[in-house]
Amino acid sequence: MGASELSNLTLHLEGSLTSALGQYLDNWRRNMTAASSTLDKTLADENFKNVISYLAVMIGMFAFVVVAMLVSTVKSKRREHSNDPYHQYIKEDWTAQLQQDDVITNFGAG
């Protein structure tokens, strides 16, 4: 084998490998593009199919929790009357404390 034959063989192999690799990459790109477009189409169809119902359910649950908290707070405030024993205890405790402070203040002033 001479140098020219070896050179021709190298060029031939290079051309063959370049052609085979180019065809492979072109086919791969076409397959990826087709798969990508199919996936994009599927996502576009399915992405917003149930979003409105999902949002309605989530907002409804949130509203239910908020209303339940507000109602329980209002009911608990309604139960706090001046006749409530706990309320009377606090009122009497504060009244006694204020009277004691008045006695101490009057004692210090006199």
Automatic annotation (TrEMBL):
It comes from the Eukaryota. It is a single-pass membrane protein; Single-pass type I membrane protein. Keywords: Cell membrane, Ion channel, Ion transport, Membrane, Potassium, Potassium channel, Potassium transport, Transmembrane, Transmembrane helix, Transport, Voltage-gated channel. One of its GO terms (molecular function) is potassium channel regulator activity. Pfam families: ISK_Channel. The chain crosses the membrane at residues 51-71. It is found in: Apical cell membrane; Cell membrane. GO terms for cellular component: apical plasma membrane; voltage-gated potassium channel complex. GO terms for biological process: potassium ion export across plasma membrane; regulation of heart rate by cardiac conduction; regulation of ventricular cardiac muscle cell membrane repolarization. The keyword Cell cycle does not apply. InterPro entries: K_chnl_KCNE. Belongs to the potassium channel KCNE family. This is Potassium voltage-gated channel subfamily E member 2. It comes from Dissostichus eleginoides. The lineage of its organism: Eukaryota, Metazoa, Chordata, Craniata, Vertebrata.
